[in-house]
Each structure stands twice: as C-alpha cells, then as structure tokens.
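FW: tagging you since you asked about this chain on Friday. Here's the raw sequence from the shared folder, copied in full. Didn't touch anything.
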Amino acid sequence: MPKVCLCLTGKTLARDLEILEKYKKYTDIAELRADCLDPDERFHIRSFPKMAGIPVILTIRRVRDGGQYAGHEGARITLLANGLAFAEADPRQNFAYVDIEEDINVPSLEEAARAFGTKIIRSFHNFEGVDSNLAQRIRDLYRTGDEIAKAAIMPKSLNDVRTVYSAAKETSGCEKILLCMGDYGVNTRILADRLGSHLSYTTVRGEEGIPVASSGQLDPRELTELYRFKEITGNTKIFAVTGFPLKVTGSPKFFNTVFGIEKTDAVYVPIPADSIESLIGLAGDIGIQGVSITVPHKETVLPYLAVKSCTVDSIGACNTIVAGPQGWHGYNTDAPGFSDSLLKFAGLKDLHGKKVSIIGAGGAAKSVAYEVNRLKGKAVILNRTASRAREIALPYQFAWGGLDSHGIKMMEKHTDIIIQTTTVGMEPDTEGDPLRFYNFSGKELVFDLIYKPEKTRCLCRAESAGCKIINGYDMLMRQARYQYQYYMGKEFPSSLISRVEM
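HL: got it, structure written out here
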C-alpha cells in the first residue's frame, strides 16, 4: 500500500518539526527538503531523523529539478554526505532514504547510504512532458536491485498522463515512485496504488512561512481524509469529474464524503481533460466506473455514448456517464437539479406565465432551456455568439439574440426570472459580469449557476438593486444526488442530505 509522504519546506528545522507534528497523524514518511532551509540550518540536518520520529527522506533539490538549491554541486554532495554521516545503531535515528538524481555518480556517498541502512531513491524530473520510452527510462534508473526509481513528470495533456499509467503497468514489478505534477497530475497522487507507487507526496497549505504549494499538490489531511487514500486498493471503484480547466469543483467533497459515511469502497477524483477523447481513453485504461462531465465537454461527449437517456437526446447535452457492458451510458442530471432548485427558490409549481432570460448557450444553457420549456415558461436566450443562442431557442420557439443593445431590449421583456449559465465570474476569474450591460430593477428573480464565489459580481449587483438571488450551490447538490442514483444504482438516502455538503 502506498505511503503518504509530507514534504517539509520550511526555512528552519524547528519550523519543519512544528509542521510535521501538526500533520503527523496523516503522514507515514517525511521528506526533508534541505534545499528550502536557510543556509546555516543545512549544517544541522543530521539530527532531524531522530527529532522527527518517523522515516525521513533527505532531499537537496537543485533549481533545475524544481528545487531551491543554487550552490555548487560539490557543496551539495558534501551536505548530503554530512546528512548521512555518524550513523546510529538504531536505524530510526538515521535518514531512511536519500534522494539522488540519475546524473549523480558518487560511489562513496552511495556506499555510505547502504552501509547505514539508508535506501537510495534514484530520481529524475521531466518538466517538458513525458518520455516516449518512459518505462525503459524507469528501468534504466536502477544501478542495484535495492534502489527505488523515481520519475516525476509534468504532463502537457491528459494523453501524457495516460502514457504514465501505461509505463506504470509495464514496470509493475519494479519498486518505484511515479507521479505527474501540475493539475493534470492530481489523479496520480490520489491513485498512487494504480501506479504501483511506493508513496504519494503531499504539501501543507496556508501555513505561515511555508511556500505556496505548486498546482496539483494535495494537503496530507485532504489526501487522507477526503480521498481516504490509505483505503484505496486495486478493488476500489473509481469515479471522476472532468472538464477543462476544472479549477472549481465541489463534487469530490460530496461523493467522497458520501462514500466515507456509507463505507463504500470507492473514490471520486478530479481529472482535467483537454479533450473528451483522452478522458474516455484514460477511463478505459484504469477502470473508471462513472464520470461527471462539466464545461466544455457536455456536448462533445455525445459521440462516445453507446446509450443516451431520453433527456440527453432531447437536450443535446450530457453531464453524467456510467460504464456499461456495451459502452458508456449518458444521462443529464443538470436538468432536474436545476428545475428542482428553481421552483423551490421561486416558490412555484411551474413557470406558466413567466418570462425568463437565459444568458449563455453552452451545455448548461441547453438543460435550462429544456426545463423552462417543460415547465411552461417563455424565454429569450442571449449569448455572445447569437447563432448559438438561436440553435437552442428554435426548438422551443423562444426568442434569441446577442449580448448587445438589441439583446437588452428583448431581455427587458423577459425579466420575471434571469438565469445566468456561463462561466463568467467563476473563480479564479471573479471580476467578470456577463450582465454588466443590464440594470436590475429589483423585481427580478436572479439565478446564477456559479457557486464559487458564493456571490458573483452579477449577483452582488442584483442583490444591491433589491432582487431575490440564488447561486448554483443548491442545484449542484441536487444534481449530484441524481448522479448518485446512476453511479450506485439506488436512490440517494434522504438521511444523508443534511450530512453532506460540498
């Protein structure tokens, strides 16, 4: 079973020990990043394993390998040697591992490590993508049979991640540490067991004096508690959420919390996908059972579905896929999640007699338009590209237009309810307001499907004008409960509704 490794990147050993003590219950191994220490602190690293009380990796990472050590190589080798010197009879007081890059050839250092019971991690970092011959490169790292090979890859696409999983399978008999860096690589840190990786690295967030974690790195508490990392095995069912760039998603918290409460052997992971084809390929490679589909793949996923629900066929957008014997089954839970949330918010049974403005023309807008029509409302659909608004509007005989002066005039006739479906204003780009051209009167009901931030600029303006507002959080929760039915084959337990929040 892979272990959780906490990277310690403080400027002093004392600060690293404080961090380790705080997060020790989530941690199996610590990595002392001596390159992050103040220069004077580096001379005292030999005492760290005894103080840490758990196995420690000694690493002095060079700048070119993503670290902070910019000194001469000879001085770095001396520091590594000093860290291993004066071995104690009790191996727990020595470094358990030392990380040595593949291009370093210092036999005396390696002999000392082995003599002191310190295992060598032979590593390389590729920040330019994945090696086409990655499996062979991993094999070539070993100089003796007792070493651990480490490959850290910065994928440029999800297909690069697929190559890493393939290399992991080819080197299944090798003791190794294998991971992808960056946002594409989050799933490899959670699914270290699928890679046959010896450990998964974590970094704390929001701690004073600790550098900001790079993208894709997880907090040890998050990895251990939210993703239940130590319970993941080859039998664990994998579910995922995909989109691009997938910077904001509350789904992993919802589903992993539910799996934890129900003691279901399953995990739900975020997988950014630059193409839906690569996501479908990866799902087949590692056995993903179901996927929540977000922007911009709700329409591009359609050709990959063996079976489409009637709602998906009618709307032309899919946000939920489930693996079946003949291929992927596609469903749309956005539609019922939206209408349930809207009717509760508005205190209505339907939209008969209501004039609605729908902003946007993506997959979410398709679901909203479908439900507004089903609920007997009338709408105008406005989008920056008017032709896309037209495509959605025509089947329902809705009005349509662009986000321009002509669109404003049409919108002024459809202001009972305003529904904002675009990603404009979503974290991290919170400055946007797709309705900046519209002045709220205070009488409109305003529904913004974004839920992070809690109040977009659009919602803040509407609220200031006196409008009743709602964000997309309630809809998100409701559609996720519908997704649960498709993933688990049973209704979402009502007893869990108050216990689960994203």
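FW: The mean pLDDT is 96.
HL: agreed, and The longest strand covers residues 119-126.
FW: great, closing this out.
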